[in-house]
Design a protein that fits this description.
There is one protein chain. The chain is built from 14 helices and twelve strands. The protein is of the alpha/beta class. The strands form two sheets. A seven-stranded parallel beta sheet has the order 3-2-1-4-5-6-7, with helices on both faces. α1 crosses α14 and α3 crosses α5. 48% of the residues are buried.
């Protein structure tokens, strides 16, 4: 059976599907991952076929205001839709669609008669348990949470309208709006599996049938991969350090953030590792090491804490390692995950990115490293996550859907 996984966005929106795809390949399936060209090496290193989606993820790195995010998202998905049908190829037996690609993939599935399954990284369905993750707001009460969740879906549908209209015209399908297609999928109980841990987000009781929280899909890790000699030497040279990094966020703010990070580490009496990322964090000192991209699974278990932007993947990786966190959310779903970590007791209260200061970061680091309650909470979550098999649950759903 030929399975095509379609995902687009930043590295954190794509990397989990390399691990999911590798797991399905080990189970005997022929797996391709369609995403943007920047992630071709990730896909191929996982032993998966790469297919190109024509959208520029750099478009997502602009302003963080809500209107700016809406504009850049609309431009991103319009470009994405132009080449999605080309990535489908011949002989695809099953489509696995991320939250970003599903509103386009549904139409391709309709045109080709291909079965499809949702594989989402964030909770998107409205619920009374919490407001939409993209709002980053506190709970408004069950009724208002559900209402704001439905409103968020309508805003998503608006973003996809131009891309969907163009795609359906190309596929020679009759006109259908994104909201109409979404209603069809919901009425049919379209199966959607959510790739995060119930330690962070238990399945809401008011979700419709067909929606499951199955556990995290971890990025593919080559069994032969090791940390560099310089990093190993630094880790062994003293007490466990703190990693500070902002992933694909904060482009162009490296100098300011590096200064805050180094001064806060020293004020808290801690050694540190700065991960360059899009911000370009860097420092040169005996008590601070600068690194590039490193697999979380190799490094995180050897840290005292992680300071991060609260992306879904980084948040899960810190918990999996049993390591507490200081979160500095920037935008989108990051305040949601930061709040979840704090509610678990595995992280301090979030520090909004615009409010980050040396004193605030130093105080948070002192708390999270020296108060063992944070580590104990992270360890409990890690033990829970060990009981979950996200890739295995997807495999089970595929067999139920296809009968093979």
């Amino acid at each position: 059976m030929k399975i095509l996984i379609a995902a687009a966005g930043s590295r954190g929106d794509v990397a989990p599907y390399t691990g999911l795809g590798a797991g399905l390949r080990r189970a005997g399936y022929d797996v391709a991952l369609a995403t943007t060209d920047a992630f071709a090496p990730l896909v191929r290193n996982a032993g998966l076929e790469f297919r190109s989606l024509p959208a520029d993820t750099r478009m997502r790195g602009g302003g963080t205001g809500r209107r700016e995010l809406m504009r850049t998202a609309a431009a991103f998905v319009t470009e994405l839709g132009q080449g999605f049908a080309d990535a489908m190829g011949d002989g695809t037996d099953l489509l696995l669609l991320s939250a970003t690609t599903a509103p386009l993939g549904w139409h391709i599935a309709e045109a080709t008669g291909t079965p499809s399954l949702g594989v989402y990284l964030q909770p998107t369905a409205p619920t009374g348990d919490f407001p939409p993750v993209v709002t980053g707001s506190r709970s408004l009460g069950r009724l208002a949470n559900r209402a704001s969740g439905r409103f968020a879906l309508r805003m998503t549908d608006r973003i996809f309208e131009p891309a969907v209209a163009e795609l359906r015209h190309r596929l020679r399908l009759p006109p259908a709006s994104p909201s109409e297609m979404r209603r069809r999928q919901e009425q049919a109980n379209w199966p959607t599996l959510y790739g995060f841990s119930t330690a962070l987000v238990p399945r809401p009781g008011d979700w419709r049938s067909g929606l499951q929280v199955v556990g995290t899909w971890w990025p593919h890790l080559d069994a032969a991969e090791r940390l560099s000699a310089d990093l190993e030497d630094f880790l062994r040279a003293g007490p466990r350090p703190v990693l500070i990094g902002f992933g694909s966020m904060a482009a162009g703010q490296g100098e300011r953030l590096s200064g805050i990070a180094v001064r806060a580490l020293r004020r808290a009496g801690l050694r540190g590792i700065l991960q360059g990322g899009s911000a370009g964090l860097a420092a040169d000192a005996d008590d601070v090491l600068t690194i590039g991209d490193i697999p979380h699974a190799l490094l995180f278990p050897r840290l005292a804490a992680v300071v991060h932007h609260a992306g879904a993947g980084t948040s899960a990786a810190a918990l999996r390692a049993g390591v507490p966190a200081v979160t500095v959310p920037v935008t989108a779903d990051q305040p949601f995950w930061a709040g979840r970590l704090a509610a678990l007791g595995a992280a301090t209260a979030p520090i909004p990115f615009r409010s980050l200061t040396v004193d605030g970061l130093a105080d948070a680091l002192d708390h999270v490293v020296n108060r063992q309650a944070y580590t104990r909470a992270a360890t409990r979550a890690a033990q829970h996550m060990e009981t979950e098999d996200g890739a295995g649950q997807v495999l089970k759903a595929i067999r139920q859907l296809t009968g093979g």
